[in-house]
Fold this protein.
Amino acid sequence: MPNGAAAAVGVHPIAKLGFGGAGLSAYEAARPSYPPESIAHCIDALGLRRPGPVCDGNSPAGGPPAAGRPRVLDLAAGTGKLTAQLAALDLFDLSAAEPSAGMCDAFSRACPGVPVVAAEAAALPFEDAAFDAVFVGQAFHWFATPEACRELRRVLRPGGGLALLWNLEDAGQPWMRDFLDIFQPYARRAGVPNYGLGTHTAALASPWFAELFDVSPSPSACSKLFRSRQPLTREGAWLRVLSNSFVASLPEAEREGEAGAMGDKPTQGTGLVNMVDSVVTVITNDGRHIVGILRGYDQATNLILEDSHERVYSTKAGVDVLALGLYVIRGDNIAVVGQVDEEADAQLDLGSIRAPPLKAVTHG
């Protein structure tokens, strides 16, 4: 039996309540992926792009790894947000561990090719030195304890490494600060571990952590910030808040009351909107709702806007083609520009497009 099997300290009760039901569905819908450059940084820092040395791979999660491929564990993998990005790189043999049964089910649907075990950080069902690296996305604050960190060190081979990632809201945006002011008090009241409250920082700076992991010259020197721009509407912001366990675990009436409070906050600014095979709501600067429905390039003309609008066409390649996910709201509002296609990262140059007059389309 693995050495850590008897070391369980239990999952936080708020996590048990919040990461099921409404919290689980909000988590799947609202939690963003990680900036690719942040993952690349972790891979390079851990030396995972080059073959070996690798561990022997003996664990309940599966057989030995392919020759020269490092073994990587995604711990507290949730619904597989980070795992899916790691798997797409095809650089390692991946395994996952997640304590929530509901999230394990969602994980298996999202990442069917990656074995997942139901396990807590302080009681991992893996042999000693089973992995070359452990990734933890958006979760280390839940188990930043000596017991769990000793278990992480146990399953890592000598010279193996630990990558801790978090996606953070931009508190520099006034309307996002309003949202944070609404839900952060719940975390403090419930005593819930939370990145925004700095739960993990004491652990990273502690003598016991330094005995397990090399954080020289300092924990902050081992960290790097990556900025990314991701679409967020008022509804999306509420889902993002609801995906926090300490909000999702509230009584329904209290949750709905906070949703109303958030809805009263003016949403300022616009952002990139990816409408590829998705249903999207955008909030313009003056608070109008524009609902777009788009299912792939072949059905791009199915885009429906709730308000007056003009569709914007691209003249690229000499033909008039509806630029996928691209439209402009006229008036005093800043243009809302979506991605051109699933693979495009940059928005179109507005100077290269024209907007022929089209009949307005409204909801029937």
About this structure: The longest helix spans residues 174-190. The chain is about 30% helix and 15% strand.
